[in-house]
Design brief:
homodimer, 265 residues, seven-stranded parallel sheet, 12 helices, 11% strand, methyltransferase activity (chains A, B), tRNA processing (chains A, B)
Chain lengths: 265, 265
């Protein structure tokens, strides 16, 4: 990619391979990324890495491999990212919005152009991304494959997504400016909000026999789609804090933990 | 590909791998073709085939491998074809027109729809298609790769071309699916939510000297941007209702308005 400052923009893009089983696939993915003019590779808990087979299949894209960051868990790999998309061949029901690779490329470039860090997640070869990993995504990337045989090889899925990113980049007609000016909150900050929300729902006895998991999945999907910025997240936290204060008062306990009858005025 | 007669149309499309060195690449190419809903594979003078590694990397796409035609030379493999396109990463000077994979997909589908047999040629891993092979092509397919590192793996080049063919096929009139499947709530429903939210914020004493108007503006902007659907809005209303219930209990009033001391159990 030869445009001015392309290195700056693309340095914010991270292909994140999660729990990869075969080191050869890591090398082949590095090669796929490099052929499309990108370099950012992160590995989360790879089963065998470093490994000579990774370098054998990188076929000259060793610079990408050598610079790859290795993380013990996914949240630490994407903590600074403001857009997280997960590749999945399967429909996951209500969990996440689905983007085609082409739609995803537009969204990624818009986010990169706004100065944000972006992560693209690719799961384990056999099992894909698990539900806890999918939950961290703002949306899914669904490669339109034959429903009767949808098993893309890991590096081939990376290739298709990287190819669409390169096309979108080269077409240059730079994507629509973001509709929302302030940067969205980071993945770690959003997870902090979800924890606060889950605690608060328990305290106001919200679930009443309904599945807390289903409700939280729907709420996660909603807030991930909305991409709140830092100030919005502060307001949302503030509402939860006052809600908790009321719930504690309702239970006859003052905010500092003493019984309300001690000092209720 | 589920359209009527798709099998008939696509049976006229042949991915032709020419002088392939590594049988694993033949298997990986079969898998790539199969994931995109196609099946036609021809092999010209493969260096090692049949071979167990081809089947290992086909990963379940054995039907494609088993049906592959093996030819001693390229002219006999493409004798019946009325459109022949050759994949090449390199510019071949004036020899041939170059099509992008997307342009090639359009041209291929037009030819298939007209009832013609079509061949897509992919050369040897190291040397690509030689000049005699290129001469048999109507045009070249050039995958837009990084000029400093343009070495796509054979199966990955097949994957990109097959992916564009599948997209072109599926677009055959089909609308692009919306990013979010459920329709967003109506404006009136959203306004109902904002009223409920404003009332609740008063009841939990959220504002504490801050401007209610500014806060509500920010919250409106956030929820309008997020475009909740009807089900999400019901959950959000439910959270507010339980929050109000807690606030009333905290004020010593039961939800139906009587003093809590009358009947708190």
């Amino acid at each position: 990619m030869t445009e001015p400052n392309s290195a700056d923009v693309l340095a914010r893009l991270h292909f994140v391979l999660v729990r990869t089983s075969h080191p050869g696939n890591i090398g082949a993915a590095a090669r796929a990324i490099r052929t499309m003019g990108m370099r950012g590779l992160s590995l989360v808990a790879p089963q065998a890495y470093p490994h000579p087979e990774a370098h054998a299949l990188a076929a000259g894209a060793d610079d990408v491999l050598d610079a790859a960051a290795v993380h013990a868990d996914l949240p630490s790999a994407i903590a600074n990212c403001r857009l997280v998309l997960g590749a999945t061949a399967r429909r996951r029901g209500v969990l996440l919005d689905e983007l085609s690779p082409r739609e995803a490329a537009q969204r990624v470039l818009a986010s990169l152009s706004a100065g944000h860090e972006v992560a693209l997640l690719f799961g384990n070869e056999r099992s894909g991304l698990d539900n806890d990993e999918i939950k961290l995504c703002h949306a899914a990337i669904a490669i339109p494959s034959d429903p009767t045989y949808s098993s893309l090889n890991l590096a081939q899925a990376v290739q298709v997504v990287a190819y669409e990113l390169r096309l979108a980049w080269l077409q240059g007609g730079l994507p629509v400016p973001a509709a929302h000016a302030d940067p969205p909150a980071s993945s770690a900050d959003l997870e902090g909000y979800f924890e606060h929300l889950a605690r608060t729902l328990d305290e106001i006895e919200f679930h009443k026999g309904r599945s807390p998991r289903t409700i939280m999945q729907r709420l996660r999907r909603f807030f991930l789609r909305a991409q709140p910025d830092a100030r919005e997240l502060r307001i949302l936290h503030g509402i939860l804090a006052d809600t908790q204060r009321m719930a504690r008062l309702a239970r006859g306990v003052t905010p500092d933990g003493r019984s309300a009858t001690d000092e209720k005025d």
